[in-house]
C-alpha cells in the first residue's frame, strides 16, 4: 500500500489557509520558526500539509507569550518526530533531534507551565459557566463558534 502524494502549499496558499498574511508566513520563515519543506528551482518555497498545523501552533504559542527561541525549539522537535503530512514517526531516534537536553528540559518546563495555567483557566471558566447557567440561562446554552466570538482585531 503506497501513501497518497503529498500536496504542497505555496507561501500565499499556506497564509490563506491559516488566515494570516503572506508576509506573516515569510516573517516566521525568516525567523526560522517555519521552514519550507521544499524549494523549487526558481526559489519558490513550498510547505507540506503539516506546516499548516505548525504555523497555527506558532501563532498560538506566540499569543500565549512563549519566547521566540522556545517556539523555534518546539517546531524543531515537532518536525523531527513527524512526517510532512503530520503523522507521528514511530522510528525517530534521539539523533534526529538537534536540540540539547538542556533545551528539551526548557521546552518541557514551558509546556508544564502552560498546562498548569490552562488547567487553572479551565477550572475558572467551568465555575463561571455554572454560575451563569444558574443565574441567567436556566439551562443549556450552545457554545458560540470561534469565528462568532471574534477577537476585536482585523
UniProtKB/TrEMBL annotation:
Which SMART domains does the entry mention? HTH_MERR
Q: Which GO terms describe its molecular function?
A: DNA binding; DNA-binding transcription factor activity
Asked whether the keyword Transcription regulation is assigned, the reply is no
PROSITE patterns, alphabetically? HTH_MERR_2
Q: Which SUPFAM superfamilies match?
A: Putative DNA-binding domain
Q: Which PANTHER family match?
A: HTH MERR-TYPE DOMAIN-CONTAINING PROTEIN (PTHR30204:SF93), REDOX-CYCLING DRUG-SENSING TRANSCRIPTIONAL ACTIVATOR SOXR (PTHR30204)
Name of protein: DNA-binding transcriptional MerR regulator
Q: Which species is the source of this protein?
A: Deinococcus metallilatus
Amino acid at each position: 500500500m503506497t501513501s497518497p502524494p503529498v500536496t504542497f502549499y505555496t507561501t500565499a496558499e499556506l497564509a490563506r489557509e491559516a488566515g494570516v498574511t503572506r508576509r506573516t508566513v515569510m516573517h516566521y520563515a525568516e525567523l526560522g520558526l517555519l521552514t519550507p519543506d521544499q524549494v523549487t528551482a526558481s526559489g519558490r518555497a513550498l510547505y507540506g500539509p503539516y506546516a499548516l498545523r505548525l504555523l497555527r501552533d506558532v501563532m498560538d504559542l506566540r499569543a500565549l507569550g512563549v519566547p521566540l527561541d522556545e517556539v523555534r525549539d518546539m517546531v524543531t522537535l515537532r518536525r523531527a518526530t513527524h512526517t510532512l503530512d503530520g503523522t507521528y514517526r514511530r522510528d525517530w531516534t534521539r539523533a534526529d533531534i538537534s536540540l540539547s537536553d538542556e533545551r528539551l528540559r526548557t521546552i518541557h518546563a514551558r509546556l508544564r507551565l502552560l498546562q498548569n495555567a490552562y488547567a487553572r483557566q479551565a477550572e475558572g471558566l467551568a465555575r463561571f459557566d455554572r454560575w451563569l447557567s444558574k443565574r441567567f440561562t436556566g439551562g443549556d446554552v450552545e457554545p458560540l463558534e470561534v469565528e462568532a466570538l471574534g477577537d476585536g482585531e482585523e
